[in-house]
Specification:
Its EC number is 4.2.1.47. There is one protein chain. The chain has two domains: 4-184, 3-Layer(aba) Sandwich (Rossmann fold); 197-224 and 258-314 and 338-363, UDP-galactose 4-epimerase, domain 1, CATH 3.90.25. The chain is 36% helix and 17% strand. Strands 3-2-1-4-5-6-11 form a seven-stranded parallel β-sheet, with helices on both faces. It has ten helices and 15 strands. The protein is α/β, with parallel strands linked by helices. The N and C termini lie far apart (45 Å). The structure holds NADPH dihydro-nicotinamide-adenine-dinucleotide phosphate and guanosine-5'-diphosphate-rhamnose. Guanosine-5'-diphosphate-rhamnose binds next to helix 3 and helix 6. Guanosine-5'-diphosphate-rhamnose binds at residues 90, 92-93, 133-135, 185-186, 195-197, 200, 218-220, 223, 225, 259, 311, 313, 316-317.
Length: 373
């Protein structure tokens, strides 16, 4: 029998890859998208189906995780076999500026969905996936972090996600719901939001190489992350809901790199060698070699990156490294794309766009193009 899935956060990075994956598996997919003054469906436009065609396999509903009646009505209409709760105010730095909103959406939003499922009597039939996060580990208590490592959240985002983690466990234990937490470490892709660190780097350096920007301003370059590819991670989100018993899993690569490493990989994809000079807030990256004409916007000696304390967080998560053994042993999951391969894919995608903009600019076309990162 064809299954039906409901995905919150369908317009986001993971939502777009998950919907592709579920459609490939033959699911009927329903997505909740927010009303916005501009179109916000760029990541799923390629799989969007005109609602006027008979039996579209992807249907979008306007909704918001802060709106209980809206969520309840959508779940009542769709009666999903599986709910994937990917919607969130997902930016850690922004959560310090909007802590209450972040708590409403990232913590209470999860409760609203679980309660709607229970209230509608679907708790024994609808399976629930919660997008939990390595940010729960925050000030890490053990290296590497696994399912049993104690949590120590370090941001309003992480504290809100901590509530969601436990309310998911609680509904599983209290009402026998099939509800799981995927504790996902950072995962990226060419569809990553432009203000997360990897995409900020690949997009910023691609623009600089094409002469569209001069310098990218960044925060803590020493931060260490375990970066995987979103495509590998959404596969695991689905796998978690196909087991006999619900459980929680760490999803990670088990390898760790610094933000500085990611800058160097990205520069090298562009044929540019950088040298980091200065320390702390004075640190900057200088071009010391360029391979051929790969970066027409640059010359040796240019400063392409500067540290700006504005991007430091009030409390930082310095290091994250996951141990995905449980997912590997129990579900047979392993990531297929390395962090370096992912970086290469991201730079190529951003370079393609930057080249198009540079070409149009050179021929006198004024392209609306935000350099804000
Ligand atoms: P994105 O920021 O790319 O996407 C977030 C999605 O949530 C968007 O579709 C956004 O809509 C939607 N959203 C935001 N606020 C609301 C709201 N109030 N009501 C309904 N929808 C809302 O995140 P990712 O795809 O990267 O991440 C998916 C989930 O996984 C998030 O919950 C995130 O916290 C979590 N996570 C992500 C990790 C990562 O490394 N990517 C790691 C661990 C967890 P819009 O497009 O309109 O803004
Ligand atoms: P993170 O991702 O906070 O781990 O949350 P992000 O890419 O924003 O930051 C990673 C690390 O890089 C440092 N950093 C910078 N970060 C940003 N955004 N901009 C900068 O200029 C910059 N300079 C240095 C940060 O301080 C941090 O240490 C992501 C989100 O997807 C969450 O939703 C998810 O839960 C976690 O990953 C796992």
């Amino acid at each position: 029998m064809e299954k039906t899935a409901l995905v919150t956060g369908v317009t986001g990075q993971d939502g777009s890859y998950l919907v592709e994956f579920l459609l490939d598996k033959g699911y009927e997919v329903h997505g909740i998208k927010r009303r916005s003054s501009l179109f916000n469906t760029q990541r799923i436009d390629h799989i969007f189906q005109d609602p006027h065609v008979p039996n579209p396999r992807l249907r979008l509903h306007y909704g918001d995780l802060s709106d209980t009646s809206n969520l309840t009505r959508i779940i009542q209409e769709v009666k999903p076999d599986e709910v994937y709760n990917l919607g969130a105010q997902s930016h850690v730095a922004v959560s310090f500026e909007a802590p209450e909103y972040t708590a409403d959406v990232d913590a209470l939003g999860t409760l609203r969905l679980l309660e709607a499922i229970r209230f509608l009597g679907l708790e024994k039939t609808t399976r629930f996936y919660q997008a939990s996060t390595s940010e729960l580990y925050g000030l890490v208590q053990e290296i590497p972090q696994r399912e049993t490592t104690p949590f120590y959240p370090r941001s309003p985002y992480a504290v809100a996600k901590l509530y969601s983690y436990w309310i998911t466990v609680n509904y599983r234990e209290a009402y026998g719901m099939y509800a799981c937490n995927g504790i996902l470490f950072n995962h990226e892709s060419p569809r990553r939001g432009e203000t997360f660190v990897t995409r900020k780097i690949t997009r910023g350096l691609a623009n600089i190489a094409q002469g569209l920007e001069q310098c990218v301003y960044m925060g803590n370059l020493d931060s260490l992350r375990d970066w995987g590819h979103a495509k590998d991670y959404v596969r695991m989100q689905w796998m978690m809901l196909q087991q006999d018993e619900p459980d929680d899993f760490v999803i990670a690569t088990g390898k760790q790199y610094s933000v500085r490493d990611f800058v160097n990989w990205s520069a090298s994809e562009l044929g540019v060698t950088l040298e980091f000079r200065g320390t702390d807030v004075d640190e900057h990256a200088v071009v010391v070699a360029i391979d051929g004409d790969s970066a027409p916007g640059l010359k040796v000696g240019d400063v392409v990156l500067r540290v700006d304390p504005r991007y430091f967080r009030p409390a930082e998560v310095e290091t994250l490294l996951g141990d995905p053994s449980k997912a590997h042993n129990k579900l047979g999951w392993a990531p297929e794309i390395t962090a370096q391969e992912m970086c290469s894919e991201m730079v190529a995608a951003d370079l393609k766009v930057a080249k198009r903009h540079a070409f149009l600019k050179k021929h006198g076309h004024d392209v609306p193009f935000s350099l804000e990162t």
